[in-house]
Write a structure and sequence with these properties.
Blueprint (H helix, E strand, L loop, with lengths): L1 H11 L21 E3 L4 H16 L2 H19 L4 E22 L13 E19 L2 E14 L4 H20 L7 E2 L4 E13 L4 E7 L3 E7 L5 E6 L10 E11 L2 E13 L4 E7 L5 E7 L6 E14 L3 E10 L3 E10 L8 E12 L10 E15 L9 E10 L2 H6 L7 E10 L1
Antiparallel strand pairs: 1-2, 2-3, 2-20, 3-4, 4-6, 5-6, 6-7, 7-8, 8-9, 9-10, 10-11, 11-14, 12-13, 14-15, 15-16, 16-17, 17-18, 18-19, 19-20
Helix pairs in contact: 1-4
Length: 428
């Protein structure tokens, strides 16, 4: 697994742009002490990316996206009314944006003066763990997640080694996520959260209710047979308007394959403005500091309708999405080819290619347009055929994404970014 992350990080080296540009051939690799320059568009985008990363890979979102569907699959294969599932996922996006930095070791360090200012890439990562089970109609669920960010420093080799180190220690960090240890150093950060609750499986579907650490209540309804669902997350309390909404059908079996139709509203967090403000230290001396103008960054709702047809002729997928807010566009148009029995066979692969479009988002400093998009997925599973303790199925999945629609709708400034995901699941 470590070797895979080293390879993916190596592929991401070519993403960097700017000048002095991180990773430029011939530049010094010993300019390691750096600090981001607040007030720049790169800094604002980095702060927005960090916020979005923690939202997308929050414990609640992870449970809805991955854990609950896995539990639903186990329910359909269950024979005695008692079963459990476990799930672990790691994700990374390399070069999500470029951040202007200043070399803090100059002039006394080994970094030359001409390299005092730099453009460094921001890498995002996350890990999440989920556990769920049922006994009869009642069940339980728990998930925890850790999201982090870091700018590239040293040379590309150092960056690759640091990324691999993060991924090695990430499972331990996820295990202690309920301790709620968060650190924020501008554009280098780490945050954690968890969700725990109970579920009830009735004739119409399953209801999940729980508490999200530090945020409030969570409620999710899932229909196990047709794939219907509805979700809402009450941000900062039950009296607030939902920050995230999603509802529709994701797995209707039709004569031509599986059909999905659903709508979604994502809370894209716009970067706040920054300004110098007077501050007074503990000794009574007055100075200035760069601080955000808004206490809460404004949110721009990104509303989309998704129409997807999977398994046409047993091998083809057609994926489309249309957005009407903040402006009407064809957000996604993808054509995919996959192995026979993809998702059900013991092993398989899938490859999608097409275009992704985004509206103008000048608050991020980027223009809209169409971009080539590629998504490759691989998986393999092992079924020991046993029962009771130790019996069950294990499954390993990996994916590589370039200009993926899901990523660009969340990070519209991440044009040309490379993302990777690893996922290990078990059903017992």
């Amino acid at each position: 697994m470590t070797a895979a992350w080293l390879l993916l990080t190596g592929l991401a080296w070519a993403q960097n742009q700017g000048g002095f540009i991180y990773g430029t051939p011939g530049t010094r690799n010993d300019c390691e002490g750096n600090a981001p320059i607040a007030g720049t568009s790169g800094y604002r985008n980095a702060r927005a990316a960090i916020t979005t990363n923690s939202q997308v890979f929050s414990a609640a979102t992870f449970a809805e996206r991955e854990l609950f569907p896995l539990l639903s699959q186990a329910a359909q294969a269950d024979t005695d009314g008692r079963f459990a599932v476990t799930l672990y996922e790691q994700a990374a996006t390399f070069g999500v944006t470029d951040v202007p930095t200043v070399e803090t070791s100059y002039p006394f360090g080994s970094c030359p003066g001409e390299y005092r200012l730099a453009m460094r890439p921001l890498d995002l990562g996350a890990g999440a763990l989920g556990i769920a089970g049922r006994v009869g109609r009642f069940g339980y669920f728990y998930s925890a997640s850790v999201a982090f960010s870091a700018t590239g420093f040293g040379g590309p080799y150092t960056r690759a080694m640091m990324s691999a180190t993060y991924m090695v220690y990430l499972p331990a960090a996820v295990a202690v996520a309920p301790l709620n240890w968060d650190e924020d150093f501008g554009v280098s950060s780490i945050s954690s959260d968890f969700i725990a609750g109970a579920s009830y499986n009735g004739a119409l579907g399953s209801v999940y209710a729980g508490y999200v650490s530090g945020r409030g209540g969570y409620l999710h309804f899932g229909e196990d047979r047709l794939g219907g669902f509805a979700s809402a997350l009450a941000d900062r309390g039950l009296d607030e308007r939902p920050a995230y909404l999603s509802a529709g059908l994701k797995g209707v079996q039709t004569p031509v394959g599986r059909t999905a139709l659903y709508g979604r509203k994502l809370p894209i967090t716009a970067p706040p403005g920054y300004a110098e403000r007077p501050i007074i230290d503990e000794d009574g001396y007055e100075s200035t500091a760069v601080q955000p103008i808004e206490a809460e960054p404004p949110r721009v709702p990104f509303r989309t309708v998704h129409v997807q047809q999977h398994d046409l002729f047993g091998r083809l997928d057609v994926v489309t999405a249309i957005s009407w807010s903040p402006e009407p566009i064809v957000h996604e148009a993808m054509l995919g080819l996959h192995s026979a029995g993809f998702g059900e066979a013991a092993a398989g692969w899938s490859l999608r290619a097409g275009t992704v479009a985004l509206p103008d988002m000048y608050y991020f400093g980027v223009e809209g347009g169409n971009y080539a998009s590629v998504r490759a997925e691989f998986y393999g599973s092992i079924d020991d055929g046993g029962s009771g303790v130790g019996g069950g199925t294990s499954r390993f999945e990996a994916s590589i994404l370039y200009n993926d629609a899901e990523q660009l709708s969340l990070y519209p400034y991440a044009r040309g970014a490379l993302s990777a995901n690893l996922r290990i699941a078990g059903s017992y």
